[in-house]
């Protein structure tokens, strides 16, 4: 999706940046993990296939992808985005007849970044972005039943659990979320400059939704 090609979303503990070519080698390394392949129902790809996938997703109007950076590492200068990568977060517009519905997917792939709340904050920021910029009103998440950490996280964000079957195995939750009780994450939205451009990083993090 090109709509987010120059967007940077800055939270308290994460920074979301568009998925670029320079992120692919680290992403490819993550996806060699059998554990991540199982949790994401993914098949291993070659590096060339991963580069092709990145190009395809960038052009696909039904897929919105950000790379999740750990802000603590990102704040340390000098720091390339690749060295700060923690995972990725995606929105998929899965219903051609209803673009107000999206599937949200989060992966914190870097082991040292897990258990810090980065996935929750990145997911909330992504959903707020979809609500304000893409017209999305309802979200669903498809999670393997053995992924208890993700199920617990989404339930805490007021997702309701529904049984479904995909890839031949049960998934949950497949849920709707858009209500006054939805948690919000402070976020600063700004244009992303090229790496190494010496962009000044504002210290204040302002609320996105009021």
UniProtKB/TrEMBL annotation:
It comes from the Eukaryota. It holds the Pfam family Acetyltransf_3. One of its GO terms (molecular function) is N-acetyltransferase activity. Residues 14-160 form the N-acetyltransferase domain. Keywords: Acyltransferase, Transferase. Belongs to the acetyltransferase family. GNAT subfamily. This is N-acetyltransferase 9 isoform X4. It comes from Petromyzon marinus (Sea lamprey). The gene is NAT9.
